[in-house]
Amino acid sequence: MDRMGYDYEGCHGEGRIMVFVGDLIDRGPDSISVVRLVRRLVEAKRAYCILGNHELNVLLGKANSGSKWLYGEKESLIRDKKDRHTLQALADEATRCEILDFLQNLPIVLERSDVRVVHAAWDDAAVDKLRSSKLRTVLDAYYFYKSEVDNMITSLLKTSTARAERDRLLAKWTPTGAEGLGPNQRYGPVSEDELYIQCGELMHQNENPVNVVLSGFEEVSPSPFFAGGKERTLRRKRWWNHYPSDSPLVVFGHYWRKASHTESNSEDVHLFGLDESGKVSCQPFSLLYTSERYVNAACVDYSIGRRYIERAEGKISGETGTALGALRLPERVLYLHDRPPCDLQGVPGQGVTLDNRGHVLESTS
């Protein structure tokens, strides 16, 4: 805030307003103070804030990895140090009610003619569904569309062509090419029941518009991986590859970019490394891009939620590419808390030629 010209009360000399893209909680030592700070700014009309998937999870009553502080419980957030609790401020019942009351009234997306703000994924169909519905709260919308998907799954299982329809849906959500696999090339033994379960999980994620905008589309992962405290068989999908270049700029978080080229995991590689053609892509400080063009989409999540892991592992802050990021509009200037501001690179729709490290060799109009 200070680096961008805001004082402690959220006032800016040019009358600018802050926008928080969600996921205020569950990472770091003091989620309570973070929520209270943002609430104070929102109530003073000096900031806007949208929901993230972590906020949705606590509204749904899910005690996921990192959220036990809300229930007054200690936990370890370091996978290989489960015997050592992570230092977190713990909520009592009054604090929990205070936080949930604030979160349940936050919007899901923000939009004006020149910019869109969403936590994870902007999908016109999903946003149109939410915009046109008469549902009053995010929980109303979540459970309404969850019921719709449940009915779709029940109908699928009752049909004589259930297996064929299941395989069609799995093929639809299975990546192909350099980082993909075919529907009959899954890792390990996969039973018929497991395939139906996986199909159901994908339907709940990709057909419920609340899940789409708050945690993005998912697809079948070529191999299992560990994230969010558990092993997963579905991974996040690069939805921005299909975002129209002539659409307004969309700003979002969620995806844990890195502010420097450091050691990558499988999630980094398929989201910000290899694209469908097998080429490396995505500089840290540019619009996102495919192997052919820049996309009018900016992810401002630079993995600041991983800082607590760096501290626990005795690493220098930022050593693994973590930073707190913000984008100033309409100038399109990117601010990271530990380095000088820089212009957001790239022009929407402009063609790109990449080298084998993902650096742009040239841009073409």
Description:
It is a single chain. The strands form 5 sheets. A 4-stranded mixed beta sheet has the order 3-4-7-8, with no helix packed on it. The model is unreliable at 178-184 (pLDDT under 50). The protein has helices at 31-43, 53-59, 93-103, 124-132, 138-158, 162-172, 192-207, 209-215, 266-272, 307-312; strands spanning 18-20, 47-49, 109-112, 115-118, 218-227, 230-236, 249-252, 297-299, 325-328, 333-336, 339-343, 351-354, 360-364. The protein is built from 10 helices and 13 strands. Helix 1 (31-43) links the parallel strand 1 (18-20) and strand 2 (47-49). The radius of gyration is 21 Å and the shape is globular. The longest helix is centred in the middle third of the chain and has 21 residues, at 138-158. With 365 residues, it is α/β, with parallel strands linked by helices. Helix 6 packs across helix 7.
Structural class label: alpha/beta
**Low-pLDDT residue intervals, each spanning 5 or more residues:** 178-184
Strand portion, in percent?
A: 15-25%
| Cα distance spanning the termini | 36 Å
Assembly form of the protein? single chain
Gyration radius from CA atoms, angstroms: 21 Å
The total of helices stands at 10
- Provide the residue-averaged pLDDT: 84
Report the sheet with the most strands, covering strand number, pairing sense and barrel closure.
Answer: 4 strands, mixed
Shape: globular
| Tally of strands | 13
Numbering strands along the chain, what is their spatial order in the largest sheet? Answer: 3-4-7-8
Helix content: 25-40%
Order of helices and strands: EHEHHEEHHHHHEEEHEHEEEEE
